Sequence to fold (151 residues):
Amino acid sequence: MDNIAERYTRLCHAYVQLADQFQKLDVEHMSLRGKIIPFLKALKTYKQTVADLTEEKSRLEAELQAIASKYEALKPLEALIDAEHQAALAEAEEQLNLVAETLQEMEKERDPDLSEAERLLLAEYDSSDAEFSLAESVDESHHANVLPFAS
Fold:
């Protein structure tokens, strides 16, 4: 029985050593888990950043493609940018401005060559059509004697 008691004692010591090692491993495991949590959070953040950047890259590539196609469509108009065409365009714009100024002046003063008396006569005619239409209905033979250049 001595032999069984020794074996049992060795088994108990081995079990105690195993329990101590298990406790140390458990403490180290919990410590490592605590240390890996920030790493996992950072990794998740980096993955999201990579996904966002990939999406932005795709969007920017599509935008670049759209701009490139617009550039290709406008490339034939590049010839209009040279100095000769620019000068012609500037002259045309100047002429357009002159026409606009002339139209504005015409709106302000419709008959610039008329005297003040002639303008008043036209204004009177515009405001009172009845008097002038009455004068037109009078017989022309009556006016023949009145006119100085009548024969």
User: Anything to note?
Assistant: The two ends are 174 Å apart (CA to CA). The longest helix spans residues 2-74.
